[in-house]
Design brief:
alpha/beta; Rossmann fold; 8-stranded mixed β-sheet; 5-stranded antiparallel β-sheet; 14 helices; about 35% helix; about 20% strand
Length: about 425
């Protein structure tokens, strides 16, 4: 842990000590990473559940900076089932994107390193432990098995190459063996048409700056799906788009997932997108998973105070408020994380155990888990008592309950009809 002076700055001696220690640690990881001719047996593994496409198991991904070690992903565990959409939600900086970049082995090296834990990827007839896969083998997995739709298409697409050249390159690199240039071009045209681009021949010859934001995002999706990957990582695919284009992109993703039978890991901070798309939801805070469950578990029965705060901070249909709820306080310093629950200093529902060690996961049902001391047996009645919650959170949960009841009644009427 970095020692700071009273004015908050590191001394020169302390900074040099940190840099020297970082170089030693990074060199050890890089030495393992750059090995040649690694036998497949070293990174073969077994899925805990063959029905999962990806399993994150106690994943730790750190960044070794000059001011200390940033624990970006600090023990993340969840799964992405085959053919399902898992929404990963949380505020900026909670570790969502770094978790997905760890799966792609695209964490910025050498400062960023997967320190411990496992990422098991299901290839059908076998499974790989991604953190041990060598670089040359990872080149055949990216794009073919796991593909990523990046957050901002204008910075992800190369501004000096035409759209067709960029999509052609993906197909030629990952699935171009034995194909002529004309066959690769035809496959690119089909991919552009698949994502709803009508003028595919014209777009093929255009540069990124000649397209709108929605069209660029469609091109990014076409590049990601060109080789029919088993797992699609969508990193905030609708952030920079207006609402009507957002709806089109989400419909497109949903339809394409069903067409090629892929799994989607959807990363966003927009709960509306999660509610529309996700089968399962993972809530992250300060590099850890604080709650996970089905979409119905999270939206109609939120358990962690952070999840409740996120829900209360969004407008609810049929509920008028003068001011939306705001979670008090701020996120702890990622270099010097506390040794108790990371959310404790912002929580309005603390119990006496919250000052102890970080809470372990507690199962509320077969699908619903939460990391919170409020759900220990001695506190569970209080945790489920609305009177013990902040008024904004209580009103939000009541509104969600009414909405849930309305939805059930509509489904019942439709069933009768």
């Amino acid at each position: 842990m970095a020692k700071k002076r009273e004015d908050g700055y590191l001394s020169g001696r302390e900074a040099r000590r940190i840099q020297k220690e970082n170089r030693r640690i990074i060199n050890e990881f890089e030495k393992k990473r750059k090995r040649k001719n690694v036998p497949e047996s070293e990174y073969l593994t077994t899925m805990h559940d063959p029905g999962n496409a990806v399993e994150f198991d106690d994943l730790h991904t750190f960044f070794f900076t000059d001011s200390g070690t940033v624990h970006s992903v600090d023990g993340v565990t969840f799964s992405v089932p085959i053919g399902k959409t898992v929404g990963v939600v949380g505020e900026s900086g909670c570790g969502k994107s770094v978790t997905s970049l760890s799966l792609m082995q695209l964490v910025q090296r050498p400062q960023g390193q997967i320190v411990s834990g496992e990422i098991r990827l299901n290839l059908g007839n076998k499974a790989y432990e991604i953190s041990k896969v060598p670089q040359e083998k990872m080149q055949t997995i990216r794009g073919n098995v796991v593909s990523m739709i990046f957050q901002e298409p204008m910075t992800s697409l190369n501004p000096v190459f035409r759209i067709g050249d960029q999509v052609d390159e993906v197909i030629a690199l990952h699935d171009g063996e034995g194909k002529s240039k004309e066959e690769i071009k035809q496959r690119t045209i089909e991919a552009l048409e698949m994502v709803g681009i009508a003028n595919s021949e014209g777009v093929y010859r255009m540069y990124p700056h000649e397209l709108s934001g929605g069209m660029r995002q469609r091109v990014m999706i076409a590049m990601s799906l060109a080789c029919n990957p088993k797992v699609i990582i969508a990193d905030e695919p609708t952030t920079a788009l207006d609402v009507t284009i957002q709806a089109q992109i989400l419909d497109l993703l949903r339809n394409l997932k069903d067409r090629i039978n892929s799994s989607i890991m959807l990363i966003t901070h927009d709960l509306g997108v999660i509610a529309e798309m996700a089968d399962y939801v993972v809530v992250m805070y300060a590099g850890r998973v604080v709650e996970q469950g089905t979409a119905e578990d999270i939206f109609y029965h939120p358990a962690h105070p952070y999840t409740m705060g996120l829900m209360a901070s969004k407008p609810v249909v049929g509920k008028h408020v003068e001011q939306l709820y705001s979670i008090p306080g701020k996120v702890p310093n990622p270099v010097n994380m506390p040794d108790y629950c990371y959310f404790r200093d912002r929580c309005e529902m603390c119990v006496k155990e919250c000052s102890g060690a970080y809470p372990h996961m507690i199962s509320l049902s077969d699908t619903h888990k939460v990391s919170c001391y409020r759900f220990l047996e001695e506190h569970r009645k209080d945790a489920e008592n609305p009177e013990k919650m902040p008024s904004a959170v209580r009103e939000m949960m009541e509104a969600m309950k009414r909405l849930h009841e309305d939805n059930d009644s509509v489904k019942a009427e439709e069933g009768e009809v």
